[in-house]
Task: structure prediction
Amino acid sequence: MKKHANIPIFVVHMGCPNQCVFCNQRLISGTSSFSAGSVRQQIEQAVETLAGSGRRAEIAFFGGSFTGIERPLMRELLDTAQEYVDRGVVQGIRMSTRSDYIDEEILSILSRYTVSAVELGIQSMSDDVLRITKRGHTVEDTYRACRLLREAEIPLVGQMMIGLPGASPEDEAHCAQKIADMGACAYRVYPTIVFHGTELAEMYERGEYRPLSVEEAVARMSAVMEILEEKDVYCLRAGLCESDNLHDPDSFCAGPNHPAIGELARGNLMRRYMERACEAEMTKGTALQGERVTFFVPVGKASAAAGQHRGNLLYLRAKYGIKSVKIIEKPEQIGYNIKIDVCPLHERRGGEIPCV
Ligand code: SF4
Result:
């Protein structure tokens, strides 16, 4: 299957007069300025890198509120991107923006271009959390934006955050549920990180905000991922990118900063499904205590199923008194569908994680 690649163009806080308490877009976009003239050059470079890879590519305007940019510049950027679509070099254009920057006028502009998705920074579906984080829009704005995108048949990607000030795990579960209900085809979930120079950093210094630990963030990310995966909403990203200045002490202040936090969350999610499979087996009357148990998981999921340092396998052994656990990838297992077998399998094959 051909993989998808974004050609990211960071518009760096352009089009956004807001200052959400957690945002320092100039830092997290990894660049400090934006030059419209450099866009063509950035696209050319990326296209050259992707040449021959067979990957489907889209030009992605990220890092600000694209649909809030002044119209002449926004059209100029879209015209440039569309040229590459028309030449067949890339397949579409996507952009990130805010819920209150989607309206009929914007959609009539976007309808003239090959827009493959709008990534909406939803962040929370609690008006209290939106107020505390100074998002500058309401839950109602998000409902309206999603409805307009749906009517315009533009695919929606929902972006949400966990660990925002004032947000509970229940608020986050509610947000994930709403993203699915509003018809998102995909999602991104980010843990809240405190960056220097933000209002959140001041709240943290004053003791008004406690960032999540890595363990808390992993558990809360996997909880929302479970809701979204159950509704077949595809995960585009869990966790911030390596390029998000998380290693720069001048930028990173506090929070669940782990380079593999998305992988940890996926592992945690797999563990939940493996536990469910164990419980279902025991409900059928199968004893797991002292047995050798094999989990059949989808192709590519063995590593997440094993967990970091095989933590999931050790956890399951301890919880159910299982003698040994083995993981085997099977093409017939799809998504997070897991089959369990208590018969021992001895021979080693590809895609297999041996017993612990
Ligand atoms: S809307 Fe986005 S770009 Fe604007 S301040 Fe908030 S997080 Fe930053």
